[in-house]
Fold this protein.
Amino acid sequence: MEHIIQVLYERNTSGPVFSPEGIDLTTASAVMFLLGKLPKTHPNAGEPGLILNKRSVKVKQPGDLCCPGGSIAPHLDAFLAFILKLPFMPLNRWSYWSHWCHQRPREARLLALLFATCLRESLEEMRLNPFGVKFLGLLPSQSLVMFDRVIYPLVAWVNRQCRFYPNWEVEKVIYIPLRDLLNPENYVRYRLQMGDPSSPGQPLPSNDFGGFRFAFQNEPELLWGATYRFTMVFLDYIFGFAPPEINCRPVVNGSLHRYYLTGKQ
């Protein structure tokens, strides 16, 4: 964890973390890139892993794996951000919080707001204990391709929490061992058909995306999209790891359900 804290801090010292215009609260989302020990029920119990939510059929992008988090609630999250800055709260336990407050006060306020959003949303979605979270640093923001939204990922470690309780937005909580993420053989080329393959007519157009394929509880899972991109940046920063070139990976075919962009009604 100390290595992660140091690397992420150094990555954010070369210039402003946020744009001079700040954060557009109407299009911004904050997510928790959540790390922790794999539970006793996992074959790699006790090892470090990435903890993700699998989106339920009741929300947009059903079936996708994502980091817990969501849109900013300006008034509520601003109040929670004030609390987070009090002594013994997670941000105050971050090694560089005092430095940010004195040298980068504007960015410290934005960071507190984003972290408050992450903790609130994670509590709602999976009952993450906000007092058991250790803040480790920031990853670069990512713009979504299919939505007008910018995502700000914050890296954190969860201590001692063994069970999570998903709400209606989450089908289940999924763990990926870091050792598997560092295995080049697990990476695929995700060939995605943009439409419903059961519809009659001309062949559907397709696009290739980077993906990570693995099994969880004996079920196949695929990580792709913005969460995949966060993960690749994290692995590059912390381990100097890069997956194989996409053209050298095995192809996995998929398609977008007609409810993908709207959620199933």
